[in-house]
Protein 1
Amino acid sequence: MAAEEEGAAPSEMAATFKVLHDHSDRIYQWDYERNRTQLVGLYNKAMGSQWNSVTDLDWSTPVDPEALVDHDGAAMVLFRAAAAEPGSPIAHWGDREFTALGVELFTASLSQFMHGEQGAMLTAAKIVETVPWIDAKYYAATQTMDEARHTEVFARYLDEKVGDAYPMNPFLEEQITALLEDSRWDIAYLGMQIVIESLALAAFGDMLRRTEEPLLRKLLRYVMSDEARHVAFGVLTLREFYEGLSEAELRDRQEFLLDNTLRSRSRSTTPEVWDRLGVDIERLRPHIAAAAARSQVNPFAGFQRGFFAKLVPNVKKLGLLDANNGYLRERWGQAGLLEFEFEKDTASEYAAYDEVARDRGARA
Ligand SMILES: [Fe+2]
Ligand SMILES: [Fe+2]
């Protein structure tokens, strides 16, 4: 009996954590001179903008997950249209089922935010260890704390207000694991600070626009003000680092960006949500496609535009759009992404996101 219990423990434990193998070098930096003034400024700003997840958010706010469902959102409109398609497996659905779907979609999104934030915490900690500049190590240390707070607040919201959570989406897990295991320190930066955090800013902004719930709104505003600073950190560091790389090395980074944008598999399908609702997604999928074609609605178009409007100008500022005779410019241009190249890069506008300073100013 005791042996069985002992035998059971490791497999239960294994389900609660995952082991990764990093291939990068850890670096001690003996040169403590603070000569990167923009990074020093960003670090000072980060220290002053730390908020407190316990005292700055009102956790006594009552939350009704069903009231959070955005019935007029493009995704929900599309799913209702899919229900009306001939032979649809959800043809019998009424308001009750669509509300349940909305709660599951919301829970699934928030769960990915939580897991992605933990990935960001691990990545920021990796950057502390692997980046060769002292000012960047200091900044990444503040970011590690920010990401701990983000992980914690999404986890608490899911636990106390929603009462449910989903496992990490395998595509997101694969994407972040690759960053954490890569031997090149700047790839962790490029993947997290530039790609995933630009994506996060767009996703959080999208949820913020669609919710009136005051606790969630404040939480998102505060997380976004940190994220904008994190993206700025990535832009400032990598711009300097990439000035010293060869064309061949820059080409690797351009390929990385293509893999993580145009070639990345869609993360828009959420099979677990449909599993929980007892719907076979493979049977439903053609009806969703038919409804989308008929109405010409792509519920993810607005979100993707938001993502590329952040990503493209940041990548341009790194010099990666135009390196190798405009290799990335040409490919992104073919995909119609260059309309965003003159948007503001996040290093130039991160202060505009500083909701924490605004709230403190209003209180003072
Ligand atoms: Fe974060
Ligand atoms: Fe972040």
Note: Residues 117, 120, 147, 150, 223, 227 surround fe (ii) ion (ligand 1) (CB under 6 Å).
Protein 2
Amino acid sequence: MTVIPSTMMAWKKTKPKFGGFELVESTVPTPRSDEVLVKTHSTSICGTDIHIWKWDDWAAENVPVGTTTGHETCGEVVAVGSAVTTHKIGDKIAVECHLACWDCDRCAEGNAHICERGEIFGVHSDGAFAPYFTIPAVNARHLPDNLPMELASIQDPLGNAIHTLTGGPVKDATIAIHGLGPIGLFAVNAAKAMGAKLVIAIDWDNQTRMELAKKLGADVVLGKDHDIVQTIMAHTNGQGVDNSCEFSGSPNALSNTIHSTRMGGYVNVLSVYGNKMTEIPMNDIVFRYLHVKGINGRKMWSTWDKMHELLSEEKIDIDTLVTHRVSFEDYPAGVELAISGDCGKVVVDF
Ligand SMILES: NC(=O)c1ccc[n+]([C@@H]2O[C@H](COP(=O)([O-])OP(=O)(O)OC[C@H]3O[C@@H](n4cnc5c(N)ncnc54)[C@H](O)[C@@H]3O)[C@@H](O)[C@H]2O)c1
Ligand SMILES: [Zn+2]
Ligand SMILES: [Zn+2]
């Protein structure tokens, strides 16, 4: 049986500036009645962690100084709260980071991922760049069969990718993935796994990621040397793709999605945009009868169910997508690597 220490060293955002993280001696939390205590196995570095590292306006407004961040995580349950009946010590879990109240109108209608009182684990409250964390049992998702713990922390971004793709048709559909960061790369792989007819993967100039997209099954890979809209039209009989997914955060890419999706097609947008936003071509959206949808998080739990089906069937190539692993002590180096963009997913091991 694991002996649980009373204190641990955790990465905390201690200073409101670029970087500003320190390893700080902290109390190992005690689970509330509806929570489990988890011993962290690994936590992957997300774009959100980069925002917090850089301390941009969004981070300054959302993250309390002193927070232990990290939300894409997995580990083993080492203690359970008094009311928990769904988990036991030794269970292997990964975290759904959207903490819902389960009591508001959004939760009642099946949209707990946009709960009116929702918070994000590892953003608004302490998370998993620490050897132990507590989480509501309902957010601790048991691992699917066949998924090794080393690869389990990536279900948050893989789920983002699947949620975005499933905002439109996937099986037998033509799909364009704009932006080949880790989430766009997962979307390329998941689209092929779900039976897409044609997957066109588009980045600007990140050669590492464009190569990874090829390995992950993209039929066509485009970049800044191509006329993106014209090339997509040429590959789809002049009609445009059925389903465009935007993962780049670039307003130009968003504009490209609107001009290269077929009449009556689907544009699903996961990206978060900075201050520079171009005008939205509303008339094109109207006359092309497009379904444009904002995507947030993962559906709780239909996205997880679909993801676990794909993972159980070993249809997702996580090994190719996790390009780097760093030790807990080397978290700052991991963030710098993620900022450089010369990588797929970077995972921190404990
Ligand atoms: N809504 C949500 O719940 C949610 C959750 C996680 C992430 N996000 C957002 O999703 C997006 C994807 O995240 P990520 O971590 O995979 O991204 P990332 O920032 O690592 O990658 C973006 C990629 O887009 C490429 N790019 C830049 N300009 C481009 C252009 N004009 N056309 C095509 N590609 C271009 C870049 O070279 C880069 O490889 C980000 O905007 C992130 O903030 C949203
Ligand atoms: Zn994330
Ligand atoms: Zn709610």
Note: DSSP finds twelve helices and 17 strands in the chain.
Protein 3
Amino acid sequence: MGKPYPPIGYSAYLKTEELLSLQNKRSDEFGSPAHDEMLFIITHQTYELWFKQILTELDSVLSVFDQPKIDEVDMAKAVSRLQRITEIQKLLVQQVSVLETMTSLDFLDFRDFLYPASGFQSMQNRMIENKLGLRSETRLTYNSAPYHSYVTQTEQEKLIASEKQASLFDLVDRWLARTPFLRTAEFDFWQVYQNTIAQIFEEDRQTVRNHPVLKADEKERNLKEIEATNETFRALFDESKYEELRQAGQFRLSYPALHASLLIQLYRDQPVFNLPFQLLTALQDIDELMTTWRYRHSLMAHRMIGRKIGTGGSSGAQYLKNATDKHRIFSDLFNLATFLIPRSRLPALPAKVREKLGFYYSAGA
Ligand code: HEM
């Protein structure tokens, strides 16, 4: 018996004819053919295709996190989709080298035909940023205009709508804030962690005070440094101080979400925290790869156009370089490393808690 649907060939399925008819060089159209314009168009189009795939994955991950309770199976799916995004991002970073085989002189053969088009108007790229959680108030602006004033009216409406939706950052924050096991009858993680930190700082002070080689002024300087680090930790133990720093932009995660992230990082070896740990790692990878892409792209722009302004009207490579640092989304997860303590100093979990954190079969064994 045949299949209940008609057969289809490769080109009909992939619509290759339509796809391959979409690379139209403006340099040909205006009678000054430039060989490298084809590479320029194809590179941008493949980026846009991969952006579409990233958005597909992101939307599915957002729908998983946009639930009051996340099923373990869905969580595993979300993590693997985020990991897929990171693999795509690696390709996107690599693709820069392909375009860099075009020299700045080659680019000048057709650059004028592009004006005022710019990657700045890539709607899908902005969507990715918004859905991940880049906030419009933290974006760099130029010409005092919002980033979405450079796209079409329809795209602008979509972007503004996406700003109003909960981003992955928001949803992960909410999910982290709900993390159980932070305080149970047997185990108050926060108290235990705070005591351990106090102990570590006291040992550090003793080491400096009793140091056989350091001179008095060096000891004083070291002790001051210890107190400065201790001050950073104090913000972690004092919610109102933390909120102050958060308002000042030093942290973005909510207080309970930060605590939960720390717990997950510290006890990542416990089976129940393994998947959440993979999730936090994937978010860090996405942030790092986005930053890497921004930096590579800014270098490429620098070698292509030097100090000229961009076709979109920005300061060019300098704007792109500044955005590299300014447009980070998950930096809090990186900053958490400040508060990690060695495994050897990690407070042992009470047996009952360990049992709760284990897989069911091992807990029952
Ligand atoms: C010859 C190669 C390229 C040059 C010289 C270049 C240059 C620039 C410049 C100067 C900007 C800043 C906005 C402006 O004033 O126009 C920009 C923004 C941008 N470009 Fe490119 N670009 C190149 C290739 C690409 C490619 C292949 C992509 C892939 C999609 C891309 C995506 C973007 C994006 C997404 C932005 C916005 C970045 C942001 O605002 O954070 N560019 N580009």
Note: The radius of gyration is 26 Å.
Protein 4
Amino acid sequence: MPNTWSNWSGFVKAEPRLMASPADAGELGDLVRTAPGPVRVVGAGHSFTPLVKSEGTILSLEKIEGLVSHDAERHLARVRAGTRLGPLMHILQGIGQGLPNMGDIDRQAIGGALGTATHGSGPELGAYHTQLETVQIVDGHGKLRDFDRAGDQDMIHAIGVALGAFGILTEVTLNNIPTYRLRRRKWVLPIAAMLADFETMMTAHRSAEFYFIPFSGYAQFIASDLSDAETTERPAEEDEAALTTLRRLRTALGWLPSLRGWLIRSAMAKLPAEDYVQDWLNVYASDRQTKFNEMEYHLPFEEGPKALAEIIELTEKRFPKVYFPMEVRTVAADEFWLSPFHKRLTCSIAIHHDAASDPMPFMRAAEPIFRRYSGRPHWGKMHSLKAGDLKKLYPRWDDAMAVRRDIDPENRFVSPYMASLFGIDG
Ligand SMILES: Cc1cc2nc3c(=O)[nH]c(=O)nc-3n(C[C@H](O)[C@H](O)[C@H](O)COP(=O)(O)OP(=O)(O)OC[C@H]3O[C@@H](n4cnc5c(N)ncnc54)[C@H](O)[C@@H]3O)c2cc1C
């Protein structure tokens, strides 16, 4: 029986010769040296691209998890890279620390989240990798190597976002903040008003994001700000029920867009505006049951409204089967060499397609719009870019590739997909 592996959405499948979960860094090093190549590492398999796919070996760090040590004064926590974000939140809360920001879910491993520049939203909040103080990796020779920001900032910037191709992260130190509380509010507004006031609305809060509901003309805006108030109950999640409604309306009325739009607007009008205060770890993550595939591009912040308007027009003119909301966020600029937020405040636009049918026609049609606005693709979400395109988007590309060659001179971590991204010959 061959081993079989698939990602969360089921779109990427692999039949590696070996799948293994080493117990510690020593065992991991031995496997990197001896296992059939290419050797790819998996976090939680929540990426939509074939980053993890390998016909050689897929290694999971599920046993290399948990807290190593912490510094209460500086709010630093050293954790093993296989730790999932859900347990990590509780570990940190227990030592008086909080992640400054999070994305939509807490299922990823911290190594996997770092590997693709996973992010939340907030004009002054960076993605997870911006919290890195130290990293420990197993390199392509199976050797442990340590780097820290104080001693070698360049190496942290080179390997903080590395797609599992600059060594395998075993331990990382995260620069956290003291635990905190957020007031989260949600309300519905016309998309025209949202786009007209985009800059103010997206920058007036610690964290702001919005979902555009195709064929409705409306967006749901979500704002989060620090709060000292008493906690109040977080309302039950309506996202899955809302998706079911949107899917049913699509199926029944896809060919009658104005009636479909009217019914969606009526349903949205009944949504209660949400307003609650909770500890940080009870605010960010949602449960995503309905499987989808996703493309997300990171654009210069000011291009966001124009690009989104074009994506909406494309969807509503040519893709009546699409019903998943589009998600729009901001991410602070950073210095990491392969970070899609490298040196620019970003507006991220994500489009989703039901995993039950082929997402490619929609994704292929949308991608040229994102690219026209100088978008950089999310490393873990669908895109068609290859080394030649990517090199133009990343000013430190050549420096990053030189570091990669030093860490992995024999290309142990290079699968055919990774070779196509990095321009590495067979
Ligand atoms: C339902 C859903 C919601 C999502 N929400 C968001 C969101 O809000 N924001 C966002 O930015 N993204 C989001 N994503 C994308 C997701 O966060 C990224 O694709 C992330 O990389 C997945 O983490 P993972 O642990 O599953 O990693 P995997 O997909 O398993 O791996 C991702 C990459 O990291 C590498 N890697 C994994 N572990 C290590 C390690 N120890 N050392 C070195 N490299 C390693 C892998 O080789 C691979 O290249 C979402 C995805 C899904 C399915």
Note: The chain has 13 helices and 20 strands.
